[in-house]
């Protein structure tokens, strides 16, 4: 067994080295519609995919392979140097690895309620003290939002089930990404709506393998230029119907102190 494991490890290392030698730059990500997801043909699509493919090309990396995988596995592969870059990482989530600091995506957590909810807008977690809140299995939130939801949690296997539970009045609300909800409900057409402004907004970044210590600076410069030239807004509009600037405006201003205190 040890010989077999040793052989498999050597084979994987050689395959990885061969991939880098051939000039293929590998980016891993977990599906996060609409930013990045797999099409019916298994191709990675979404504004984030197009943004980073273009940014890496401008940074001198013409051949990029995007690989979808479970979030923690993606992190481990990055740490081991089996992939070159990971998308959608919170600031300082992977200390010790080179990180870009130009955000092209934002995790905008919105309260999703029924159309007939008495709540007209989001004013604070205190409005949900007596609410039943859907919690997707394995979904983690920043504290103290995680603890607040956990104390009132009704389990759901995925966002679609959570939306249906709200529509059926089994639960009162769920806290999920605003863009993901808008895309999903455009198909589901459930009597739901997001409250504005969003509960929290957190930028996410690209993190690089240790062998790319200088690439984040180059990427930041390229991404900043793409923002200034309106290219990132153009790609968002192409995939989502709104520019990134419009999505941030639609989400509304966020009280940065709200999720740093217990209601």
Automatic annotation (TrEMBL):
SUPFAM superfamilies: Periplasmic binding protein-like II (SSF53850)
Keywords, ordered alphabetically: Signal
Signal peptide residue numbers: 1-21
Name of a matching Pfam family: SBP_bac_3
Gene3D superfamilies the record matches: Periplasmic binding protein-like II
Solute-binding protein family 3/N-terminal domain ranges (all copies): 24-243
The organism's place on the tree of life at top rank: Bacteria
TM annotation in the entry: none
InterPro entries: Solute-binding_3/MltF_N (IPR001638)
Record keyword Membrane present: no
Keyword Nucleotide-binding attached: no
Stated name of the protein: Extracellular solute-binding protein family 3
Species in which this protein is naturally found: Pseudogulbenkiania ferrooxidans 2002
